[in-house]
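Data card: per-record layout.
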Amino acid sequence: MKVLSWKAFLALAFFICTLSGCGGVTNSTPPPPPPPPPPKPTFTSTPPTSAAEGVAYSYQVTATSPDSSAITFTLTTAPSGATLSRSTVAWTPTHAESRTANSFTVTATTAAGASATQSWTVTPNGTVTITAVATYWTPSGSVNIPPQWPANVNYPAALIPQPDGSLLRLQGAANADGSFSIPNVPAGNYWLEINPNANYWTTASDFDDGYDVIGRPLATTATENTTTFTSSISGINPSTTGGDFFLALTDFDDSFSPAFGQIPANSTTFTSSLPVTSNVNWTQVTTLYLGQYVFTTSGNFTGYLLGPSQTVSNVAFVNGATNPINGTLSSSPTVSLPLSITGSAWAALAASAGPGTPSPTVSDYSVFAQPYATDRLALPSSGSLLGPDLILIAPAVPPAAGSTPVPASYACSFSVASLTSPLSGLGLAPITTDVNYGTLSYGDPYPSSWPRIFEYCQISTVTLPRPNSTVTDTFMVTNKQATALPTSAVAPLLGPVQSATLNGGSFFQTATLSTTAVTISWSSPSTGQPYGYFVQVYQLGTLPSGGTGYTLAGMYGTAQTSVALPFLSAGNTYVFAILAASDANANIETKPLRHQIPSAESAVVSAPFVTQ
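The structure for this 612-residue chain is written out next.
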């Protein structure tokens, strides 16, 4: 066994003690503190926050560093298309980037690695673009007709609210493609004035003022000529009592019929001759819809149901000639519709239609096939027949003296208006009680892809005293709706607005105003969900006939429940109407006239107000 020497033992002990500390004092020192971070740069430039669509935006970025080290810049947040070259931010706002906030962030970094950021937003003024294409739906597809913008007028325009309550008018110009552009419009709400009777409170940069029409646009020739249409129709189901009606419709967009009339009792044929002097280009007609409308009395229903029919294609009319219309009707596939009307619910709407004692005056309804356009509702112009919309059911309206009933619906094309003539012959007597018409069976030969639409309306009349006069004025107020074929009793889908006020006072109480600043407010209807409201302004004045009455002086569409009306003037008498509108497609701020079922309208009118 080898024994350590005492010197080796002491050396080992010293080594071990040194490793473990042995509780003694050491000679180690703490590490030095880390160096301070490099100083951050400071931005010395202020970014511009104004810009305009299509106009180059530039910002020269500057910054300093306390240690005077070099600084580099990077663009860490920016809209599409913005660039940073050395220290210059460059950007040209697109249409999509205008009239909305765009965020920017620039990072400044020193050579020593310190950094700071600068952030800002830019909301460029932008161009408001209006399209107003009339889309005509025909057997061969759609035809788009651009508008003819009026010349030498100050509209369309964007009316921009100012801090003092005034409106700044920004005008634009028509484009080669038929659109209309108004440049330099700031972000936010503004009145878009299409014309004095079509104003919309909107934030939109793109506005579709177009609409849909069933049928071909009416074409014309350079000169008038007389074109005669002669019809010889067989296949008529004879009626022992008479009263049936023959009707031929074209694929034009109006309600012209080249052959129509009552069918004699016990007749199996129909003939007619109709000369027409006009400049209409009849060669554009390609399709005819021929139908025998069977006069039917069944339970509570009295009216017309489509019977035998025929669709005639490849029509070739010649202007200035005699054009034969030959056809052989055949039975149509039969459809049954249980129909009942909740007349009491419709009559209740009249109570809130205006001041005084409004009363339901006319009701009307119809079932029709809308040809060609399968995914939208094309509404007829006011006071017209349904054009080429193809009637399947129409109640018999009491005819005017010396005329015969026609299987068509008129009343539902009207809205609010000042009446200067009676409503007789316009529709049915008001349906004020619940009525079950039973199951109605009718022919329907048309393609299944064409929408079948049920339209119902009630016109109420409101009598208004004329201020400072013994004369009264009458307004008609229409509540109406268009839906798919009903599967239950027909009741209103949309009620009128509630709690309407004018400058905080009653909407239905005549007053003299000491101001032309008028604000109309209301609450939403208790039934239905409007997409917007139309406030109409009627002004008392001289009519074209020379008499005195109310004419439409402005219409203002809004999605809000309050509107400050522009352009009223002192010394006038006004009546206002509020129309609530619901629709499956229309948007009052972007496309107010592009409709889809279900679509409804409900209205109220005010008392007269005098401005001083």
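Known properties of this structure: Helices lie at 6-20, 343-350. The chain is about 5% helix and 45% strand.

See the next section for split statistics.
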